[in-house]
């Protein structure tokens, strides 16, 4: 990604639709502030909020303060300046005239900058029920007449293949593919981009990523937290597979497994990702383990109760809060390798990582000591970004005994500006027009092709999920399923 020239002459209007919500407060404003503080936004960059609530800059500023990475000794002056660039517009999502008012508010600020080109970014931090109204009205009433207009959409991208197609049609009727950014902040993590560098600029790793060397791959997103009250309705309706697997996790899978793109461009990468997604076989229910957390019997804390004990969840809900799905790719590179997706809430820790597990060494000079040993390449994106290789080395001393060791590839060593996370990187990509790390709409279509059969089985057959204790490692059956598929837990 090329750095943005902060002195470029253009004006930018960044509109947060749904700015009164959780995502805007906890992720977007902190990321925008971090970029502003570190001089990574162009000078003519203005932020507009649009929502039904009567939001004022003063109140918004108070509401987002707990989430801002603010150094009181260094930043206060700059922080005040940041807020002079924020303008609140109140409006209803279904009222075209309110979008006209928004367009006028943007035009006033853009004119003050005295430039010839004004660019606009619409960020939909909104629930899907209003996506259609907002995309239609925004495209008709407030796109830029002198520059470009881009739209960023947050998951969920539909609920299944049918609802996604309606969403895609509506979005593509209002905006061209080159204007659409389907957000996936996990792909913007340094560790994922480092994997790309590792794979394509090093003989060692590039040559080993195939079925001849790799035994199994596990992609995990684990959270210690229960489903929060604010997301309960959504989560109960969507479940863990739709929440995490049908977007972030499969995108990570596609980035890991795609063939070499012709060049490092958005078009080439997206084409390769789509190709490998098309080769992912549709799983059946035999490839799936579903579970739901329950009170572990030791917790007095009501926040650690079982999923169906939350006041906001129906008592008879079968919505899985944990899922394991084994996917397989039908191509020459990956045939026979299981890709195990595992995601859960209320588990023993919070961690997002990929473990690429290699086959054991095919020589045995250590008389069985290394027979079951597997190298692992681990890409961890949270809680810290790490890239390391698990290997076996000689134990220090006279005897030739083996020990487990790690080769740290240190992606975290040179962090960028303070507080940069996936959102900062993604926002910069949108400003620069780099769609490499955003899904093309046909990629998401393919993802629904993969998951829709098991999702409709879950919906119509209502299989009873297994139970696991709050704060545990998840159901034992999931571990057994992963082991049967070929993964080894150490
Ligand atoms: P919220 O539920 O907080 O909603 C955001 C805003 O949308 C609200 O403040 C409200 O603004 C408006 N809104 C809410 N419900 C309705 C409705 N039924 N009709 C019209 N307007 C409504 O959502 P989040 O901020 O948590 O998330 C926004 C989007 O991003 C969602 O699609 C979510 O799935 C997705 N997302 C969220 C993440 C998170 O961390 N929170 C992570 C990843 C994705 P007002 O009434 O003022 O107009």
From TrEMBL:
GO molecular function list: glucose-6-phosphate dehydrogenase activity; NADP binding
Pathway: Carbohydrate degradation; pentose phosphate pathway; D-ribulose 5-phosphate from D-glucose 6-phosphate (oxidative stage): step 1/3
Keywords: Carbohydrate metabolism, Glucose metabolism, NADP, Oxidoreductase
UniProt keyword GTP-binding present: no
Gene Ontology biological process terms, A to Z: glucose metabolic process; pentose-phosphate shunt, oxidative branch
The Glucose-6-phosphate dehydrogenase C-terminal domain, residue ranges: 197-486
One cellular component (GO) term of this entry: cytosol
Listed SUPFAM superfamilies: Glyceraldehyde-3-phosphate dehydrogenase-like, C-terminal domain (SSF55347), NAD(P)-binding Rossmann-fold domains (SSF51735)
Residue ranges constituting the Glucose-6-phosphate dehydrogenase NAD-binding domain according to the UniProt record: 15-194
Reactions this protein catalyses: D-glucose 6-phosphate + NADP(+) = 6-phospho-D-glucono-1,5-lactone + NADPH + H(+)
EC annotation from Swiss-Prot or TrEMBL: 1.1.1.49
Signal peptide start and end residues: none
Localisation per UniProt entry: Cytoplasm, Cytosol
Superkingdom of origin organism: Eukaryota
Enzyme class, first EC level, given as a word: oxidoreductase
InterPro entries referenced in this protein's UniProt entry, alphabetically: G6P_DH (IPR001282), G6P_DH_C (IPR022675), G6P_DH_NAD-bd (IPR022674), NAD(P)-bd_dom_sf (IPR036291)
Main location: cytoplasm
Family per similarity comment: Belongs to the glucose-6-phosphate dehydrogenase family.
Function: Catalyzes the rate-limiting step of the oxidative pentose-phosphate pathway, which represents a route for the dissimilation of carbohydrates besides glycolysis. Cytosolic glucose-6-phosphate dehydrogenase that catalyzes the first and rate-limiting step of the oxidative branch within the pentose phosphate pathway/shunt, an alternative route to glycolysis for the dissimilation of carbohydrates and a major source of reducing power and metabolic intermediates for fatty acid and nucleic acid biosynthetic processes.
Protein name: Glucose-6-phosphate 1-dehydrogenase
Annotated source species: Drosophila gunungcola (fruit fly)
């Amino acid at each position: 990604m090329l750095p943005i020239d902060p002195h470029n002459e253009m004006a930018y209007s960044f509109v947060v639709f749904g700015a009164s919500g959780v995502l805007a407060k906890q992720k977007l404003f902190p990321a925008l502030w971090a970029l502003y503080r570190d001089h990574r936004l162009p000078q003519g960059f203005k932020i507009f909020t649009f929502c039904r609530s009567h939001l004022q800059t003063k109140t918004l500023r108070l509401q987002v303060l707990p989430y801002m990475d603010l150094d009181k000794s260094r930043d206060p002056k700059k922080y005040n300046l940041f807020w002079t660039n924020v303008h609140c517009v109140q409006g209803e999502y279904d009222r075209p005239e309110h979008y006209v008012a928004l367009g006028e508010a943007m035009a006033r600020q853009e004119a003050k900058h005295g430039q010839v080109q004004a660019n606009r970014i619409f960020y939909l931090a909104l629930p899907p029920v209003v996506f259609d109204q907002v995309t239609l009205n925004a495209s008709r009433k407030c796109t830029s007449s002198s520059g470009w207009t881009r739209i960023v959409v947050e998951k969920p991208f539909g609920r299944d293949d049918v609802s996604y197609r309606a969403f895609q049609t509506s979005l593509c009727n209002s905006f061209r593919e080159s204007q659409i950014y389907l957000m996936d902040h996990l792909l913007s993590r340094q560790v994922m981009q480092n994997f790309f560098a590792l794979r394509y600029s090093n003989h060692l790793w590039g040559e080993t990523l195939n079925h001849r060397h790799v035994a199994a791959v596990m992609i995990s997103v684990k959270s210690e937290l229960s489903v929060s009250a604010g997301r309960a309705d959504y989560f109960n309706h969507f479940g863990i597979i739709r929440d995490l697997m049908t977007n972030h996790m499969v995108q990570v899978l596609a980035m890991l497994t795609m063939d070499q793109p012709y060049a490092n461009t958005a078009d080439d990468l997206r084409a390769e990702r789509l190709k490998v997604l098309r080769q992912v076989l549709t799983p059946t229910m035999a490839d799936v383990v579903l579970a739901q957390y329950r009170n572990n019997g030791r917790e007095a804390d009501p926040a650690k109760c079982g999923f169906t004990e939350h006041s906001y969840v129906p008592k008879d809900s079968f919505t899985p809060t944990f899922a394991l799905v084994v996917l397989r790719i039908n191509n020459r590179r990956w045939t026979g390798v299981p890709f195990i997706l595992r995601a859960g809430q209320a588990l023993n820790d919070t961690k997002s990582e990929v473990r690429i597990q290699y086959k054991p060494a095919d020589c045995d000079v250590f008389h069985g000591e290394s027979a079951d040993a597997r190298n692992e390449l681990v890409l961890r994106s949270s809680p810290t970004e790490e890239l390391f290789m698990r290997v076996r080395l000689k134990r220090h001393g006279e005897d030739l005994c083996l020990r487990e060791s790690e080769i740290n590839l240190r992606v975290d060593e040179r962090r960028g500006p303070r507080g940069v996370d996936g959102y900062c990187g993604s926002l910069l990509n949108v400003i620069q027009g780099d769609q490499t790390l955003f899904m093309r709409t046909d990629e998401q279509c393919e993802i629904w092709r993969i998951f829709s059969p098991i999702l409709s089985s879950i919906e119509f057959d209502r299989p009873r999920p297994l139970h696991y204790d709050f704060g545990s490692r998840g159901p034992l059956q999931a571990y057994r399923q992963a082991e049967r598929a070929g993964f080894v837990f150490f």
